[in-house]
UniProtKB/TrEMBL annotation:
Transmembrane parts of this sequence: 259-281
Composition bias, Basic and acidic residues: 200-213
Molecular-function annotations in GO: phospholipase A2 activity
Compositional bias per record (Polar residues), positions renumbered to this chain: 300-319
Gene Ontology terms describing biological process: arachidonate secretion; phospholipid metabolic process
InterPro entries associated with the record: PLA2-like, PLipase_A2_dom_sf
Keywords assigned: Membrane, Transmembrane, Transmembrane helix
Protein name: Uncharacterized protein
Organism the protein comes from: Caenorhabditis brenneri (Nematode worm)
């Protein structure tokens, strides 16, 4: 049984034919357009089991993958209850499947399970090298190619060709954390990515530059300055290494942009809290200083009133008053 143009041999959800068919029926009824993304989660899970990376980490990765699509895709959100149930079943009964998966790690992959991107024929040879060098992730790599083909055919989501290619680049680039250190695999994937970007940019830049050259010739300015600018632009656009590196850097940084925003927000909040604390402390310090000055002034005033000099001054004043009164009486 195939699900939404996904060949049966590439359907990854379900430990056997019966369970897989039950999953397909359920998805067909509830969220058929989300089948490719859930299938990709299962492909990553299969590779994780085959490489014996630990049942608990593998099951957690599967649940997180499905939860991500449920939270970010309207179609996948329709199957939220089903994904939660599947997650619980895998965690509860997955130990037998995990134990059996060790046999798959040493078994050579059959060709029918290795999917090349049919909608991107110029990259097929590079993709074959990826399968040769990255022998720990055949299921994931096949799912990346399948998802790209379905995207280009408009089978499950409306996307531009550039959007489909961007998803494929991200899919391949995201495989690195899920495998052991393998420089040969890394190089093979980088070469495949470069080939994809090269094709995309070469076609676009060739058409644009061809039009620009004809426009410059039509103007007939004769100065040659415009021709130099066109040639310089051609050199930049056709500089494969430059374009490839910039494009891949943008793709990789785009996935981490949300984290940059999040940490920037947290840092801003922290700085505001620090300034608030410092301001409150300074206000308390000023209040304490004013209170101290008031107390000192009161003490000094009281001390001056009770000092001996003050008493002598008061006695002298009273004596002078009495003498003045006596003198007045005599008169």
């Amino acid at each position: 049984m195939a699900l939404f143009n996904i060949p049966p041999e590439l359907w990854r959800c379900g430990t056997d034919g019966l369970v897989a068919n039950l999953v397909i029926i359920k998805l067909n009824r509830t969220c058929p357009h989300a089948a490719p993304v859930f299938n990709h989660c299962c492909a990553i899970h299969d590779d994780c089991y085959d490489n014996q990376r630990g049942q608990i980490p593998c099951d957690t990765q599967l649940c997180d993958c499905m939860a991500f699509y449920v939270a970010n895709d309207d179609e996948a959100a329709k199957c939220e209850n089903e994904t939660k149930a599947a997650c619980g079943i895998v965690r509860e009964y997955g130990h037998d499947a995990y134990a059996e998966s060790v046999k798959n790690a040493s078994a050579p992959a059959k060709e029918k399970y290795l999917r090349l991107p049919e909608e991107l024929p110029s990259v097929k040879e590079q993709y074959k090298k990826v399968f040769e060098k990255c022998d720990q992730q055949h299921a994931t790599l096949s799912s990346c190619a399948l998802t790209y083909d379905l995207c280009r055919r408009g089978s499950f989501i409306e996307k531009s060709p550039e959007g489909c290619l961007l998803n494929l680049v991200r899919c391949l680039d995201a495989t690195k954390p899920d495998r052991d250190s393998n420089p040969e695999c890394d190089v093979a994937i980088e070469q495949a990515l470069h080939k994809m970007v090269e094709k995309e940019y070469h076609e676009e830049s060739h058409e644009e530059n061809h039009e620009e050259i004809h426009e410059e010739e039509g103007e007939g300015s004769g100065s040659g300055h415009g021709d130099v600018n066109v040639l310089m632009m051609q050199e930049v656009l056709l500089n494969k290494t430059y374009i490839q590196r910039v494009y891949l850097q943008v793709v990789r940084q785009a996935s981490s942009y949300s984290w940059i925003v999040y940490f920037s927000f947290c840092l801003t909040i922290l700085i505001c809290c620090i300034f608030s604390i410092v301001g409150i402390a300074q206000c308390n310090k000023d209040d304490h200083y004013r209170d101290t000055e008031t107390i000192n002034l009161h003490v000094n005033t009281t001390h001056s009133a009770t000092s001996p000099a003050s008493k002598r001054s008061a006695t002298s004043s009273r004596s002078e008053t009495m003498e003045s009164e006596v003198s007045s009486k005599k008169k």
